Amino acid sequence: MISGARYGGELFWSRLRAVICILAVLYLVAPLIIVLIISFSSAPFLTFPPPGFSMQWYQNLFGDPTWFGSLLTSVKILVPTAIIATAIGTAASYGLARSNFIGKPLVTGFLMAPMVVPVIIVAIGVFGVFRKVGLFGNLSGLIIAHTVLTVPYVVATVSAALTVVDQRLEQAAMTLGATPLVTFRRITLPLILPAILSGLLFAMVISFDELVVSLFISTPTVRPVTVQMWSNIRGAVDPTIAAVATIIFLFSLLALVADIIARKRTRLES
Amino acid sequence: MLASLRPRGAGWLVLPAAVLLLLFFAVPISWLLAASVSYPQLGLQNFAALYEKTIYLRVLGNTVVISGVTTFWCAIIGYPLAFTMANGSPRVRRALVFIILIPFWTSLLVRTFAWMVLLQKQGLINDLLMSAGLIDSPVALIYNRLGVYIGMVQVLLPFMIFPLYSVMVRIDKSYSQAAATLGAPPIRNFFRIYLPLSLPGVLSGASLVFISALGYYITPALLGGPADMMIAQMIEKQISQFGNWGLAGALAVVLLVGTGVSLAIVHRVLGVRAGWRRA
User: Fold this and answer.
1) Where are the transmembrane segments (chain A) (predicted)?
2) Once rounded to an integer, what is the mean pLDDT over residues A237-247?
């Protein structure tokens, strides 16, 4: 039925596509793997393949008060950021999904705006205003700025989950006399919990990775790890910075895997 | 009837997030945009300066060209990848989704740093090219336009692939099968059937990549040279080197308007297209 020539042509195109896909996958992932390998190098410079294995750059990283301090600062920012952003983002999603008021599309768009506005504009504006109101160079300022940047991701994830929840379940609970709060806690919350966790993970990763806004409102005493990395990246670079990059990378990877597991479990349950 | 059973008072739950964004997002940005016409004094002098000095026009040109070329290459590389995801076996699909999610979740700074390591004079790429005998001495792969493209395309590729993929999985395979049964050779079949059906995905992916690229700061700052400066770097420079809030504000207005106009064009094109497909 299929002529030989056509089959041969299809084979050529599918082979070509396979080659392009393999190259593209390498292009996407190989640089990260190489940095991961270099972070365990025994050589004092960024060379690949490394001449030998050593943990010295990780010892350097955790022994150096500047590097270790900046990692701690990042954690001190990301934990409150993720909790606040998830709480107010989930509340906002529920408010948007289960009510009707004039200007709702406008409010929805406004809550998503930090995702669309170029981050450099946010950074400069925040820098200009925050230094006038005592939010420059301290944790509060960084936490507030990071919360602003992460709320849209929580709203997007949780809102998507809320549109899938069968509202008849909530209505049934309320017909049977449950208050809105009980209905939310017993019916809605368990159904959207995976999405809330997803939003939480996303908020943590975005806060940990954030550089541009932090660059403008942090000082050498309160400095998250990405800013510390930025200020070292163009100087005499040794594999310590590769070790930092690897830790940031592995943190994202862990969050990604956790997210996939959470999603898979919801699919199994439903 | 059932609508009356909805929790009516839920709207106020939006307030905490809305107030936070109003105070710490809308106010700072409005303040910066207002500086464009009020710093150092009221007037349009900052916009006049943008128009008069060639350096600003060149930076604007760079921004549009770099974003455009990046979008082009993302489409070229992303298309076969998304196609394989949409038409491959479930195992291939799962593996590819995971692999593309990795860079999507990974810090931009880390990915850009990885390229700095690979593209440097004594880096892996130069080593490979030299041992393959393609070049005799290390070539400049970084601190120039090439470096910017290599980094930007990699960083933005997932934004092209996911919208493309979501359109491609919904394409009904029976169209291509029908065309093949009627004797269309694979290439013509692709260009006449599959490509037009996947075009909305290409457009929404391209718009996402282009709009994100317009405001990029980290990647061009680390991988480009002085001649490759984009608008975000220029905004940063106005503040950190000159403290010129007025010019920074004017550049921010230009960047925001450019982003907004691109978004509006895309909505229009995609909207018209969707209407045409429904008809």
Assistant:
1) 20-47, 67-94, 106-130, 142-166, 187-208, 240-262
2) 89
Q: Round to whole Å and give the CA distance between A249 and B178.
A: 46
A9-37: burial string, b at 16+ Cβ within 10 Å, e else = ebeeeeeebeebbeebbeebbebbebbbe
Q: Which domains does chain B have, with CATH numbers?
A: 45-273 (1.10.3720.10)
Domain ranges in chain A are 65-269
Tell which of B4, B24, B131 to mutate to test the A interface (max A CBs under 10 Å): B24
Q: Report the alpha-carbon angle B13-B16-B21, nearest 5.
A: 130
What does the mean pLDDT of chain A come to?
Answer: 90
Among candidates B251, B164, B156, B172, which has minimal Cα distance to B211? B156
Chain B residues within 8 A of A9 when measuring between CB atoms: 185-187
Chain A residue with Cα closest to B17: A88
Q: Report long-range pairs for B60-65 (Cβ below 8 Å, ≥24 apart).
A: B60/B231, B60/B254, B62/B227, B62/B228, B62/B229, B62/B230, B63/B214, B63/B230, B63/B231, B63/B258, B64/B214
In chain A the first and final C-alpha atoms are separated, in Å, by: 44
- The DSSP 8-state label assigned to residue A136 in this structure reads S
Tokens representing residue A170 in the block: 């909530």
* Average pLDDT across chain B, whole number: 89
Alpha-carbon dihedral sign for residues A15, A16, A22, A25: negative
| Cis bond upstream, residue A44 (ω within 30) | no
Q: Model confidence over B131-164: pLDDT tens digits?
A: 888 888 888 999 999 999 999 999 999 999 999 9
B161 touches chain A (CB under 8 A): no
Q: What is the gyration radius of the CA atoms in chain B, in angstroms? A: 23
Per-residue confidence at A65, pLDDT binned at 50, 70, 90?
Answer: very high
Homologous superfamily in CATH for domain A65-269? MetI-like (1.10.3720.10)
Three-state SS sequence of B175-205: HHHHHHHCCCCHHHHHHHHHHHHHHHHHHHH
